[in-house]
Amino acid sequence: MMQQLAIATLKPDDRFLGFLLVRTAEQRTSAKGGKYLDLTLCDKDSEINCKKWDGTVPPPKQGSVIKVAGTVQEFNGRLQMRIDQMRDSRPDDQVDLSVLMPCAPEPAEDMMAEINRTVSRMKTPELQAILRELLNMCGDKLMYYPAAQRVHHAERSGLLHHTLGVLRAAEAVLPLYPFLNGDLLRAGAIAHDLSKTAELLSDEGGNVSDYSAEGQLLGHLVHGVAQVREAARRANVSGEYVLLLCHMVISHHGLPEHGSPRPPMFPEAEMLHLLDDMDAKMNEMEGVMRRTPAGAFSEKIWTLDRRLYHPRLQTDADSSDAEQSNADAYSGLL
Known about the structure:
The protein is α+β, with helices and mostly antiparallel strands. Helix content is 38%, strand content 17%.
């Protein structure tokens, strides 16, 4: 696979030549009635909106790899690429998917093993039994599902990445607040987003095509409560732990405007909300820092309702070699 610029390093007027993964692609109609392709393309660290101003070109398949040549421009404060030429990848291109597919930084098998070890160490048999049923109900989807279609942990195995991030954060704060019930907080950390395997429609590459009927009609909070109750039924568990875990699932977004029908109403539920929010925001900010040059401000991040500043704490890697390779090869694109 040829050397190419990373999306995170692109600047206005840069010319890009290389392979990218198709997140979304659809044919649209402009205000003047012309057809064009609107695409979201990505590498492993970032993504960019692209336009192909040619209505005769069919949209490539989501999750496929295409070779593109285009020019980067700025539109409404965000980078966008105008695609000049594009084609599907071929076997002889020898594309390295590891540099294109957004993926959790740890192997899914290792993350799953750590979660299972945590469940095994719990001293509350009711919560252990419910969690084991929940994990079994999710099945193999847990190994590759993202945590979201966009925004935070939108990557292969992103759901495991986020779940483990919240769980590790819970382990870190428990010594600071010894009055918290550790097993209950751990159970909430593991269970809170598992129903996203029913909310989202994802392929094994972690590419989400849409929300499922359950996702659109119920959402993962309401569906998650039903999932916990079903797991408890299968495990023959009843009583307060079931109710508490259901409340933690349905309240972990914190506020009604963020989707929670109830606010957190006991300390472990409040802590779960705080840790979930922290892990999601830190993951999103990490991505913004990767694509924002040191000393510069990002575009407005709509989920955070603000721009972010990338401090000059370290020098970004020199990309001059990739830039030269890109420029030299551009003329002989496809």
